[in-house]
Amino acid sequence: MNEPDRADLLHYLQAQRDSVVAIVDGLDEAALARSVVPSGWTPASMIMHLTGAERYWCHGLLAGQEVGPDPVGIGAVQAYREQWARSDRALADLALDDRPRGPVPPEHVPLSDSVRTVLLHLIEETARHAGHLDVARELIDGATGLGPR
Length: 149
Hints:
The chain has helices at 6-24, 29-32, 43-62, 76-92, 115-141. By secondary structure, the chain is an all-alpha fold.
């Protein structure tokens, strides 16, 4: 596949994933399970949301595969890392202009006309939630400016 923008898209997605992990690095399980925002989400639940998002968009929608339940018995960060490795393998088999192989719900049509569009959505989604995690981390222990830049 000659896709000059593939490397850039994957680079920016990975940079955001790395930011998520760096932001919560050093937090113990109690801190990961602590909500510091009125909506009630925790750093662990936000990371599991991102894990589920990658599983849904890369496997269910793009690859047309069965999407299983959230992993159990492992921490949120480990589950996220394992999922992004699976996502990367699924994406490697798809061209950026490929259409989704799985069913696309009506509300996801604008975000899913191609692998490229889904990658852009995942970058945006991961960056948005990395920002949420930045704020939560500051509220938990005062740490700021975390994550690769």
